[in-house]
Amino acid sequence: MLQAGPRLPAVADTVLGMSMYQEGSEAGRLEQLWQGDFGSAYTERNASAGGTRSEFWRAVLDELRPRRVLEVGCNVGANLAHISGPVPPRDVWGVDLNEPALEGLRARLPGINASWSTARALPFRDGWFDLVFTVAVLIHQPEETLALAMSELVRCSRRHVLCIEYTAAANEEVAYRGQKGAFFKRPYGVQMGRLFPELRLVREGSVSRSDGFDDGLGLWLFERV
Question: Rounded to whole angstroms, how far apart are CA atoms 179 and 188?
Answer without folding.
Answer: 22
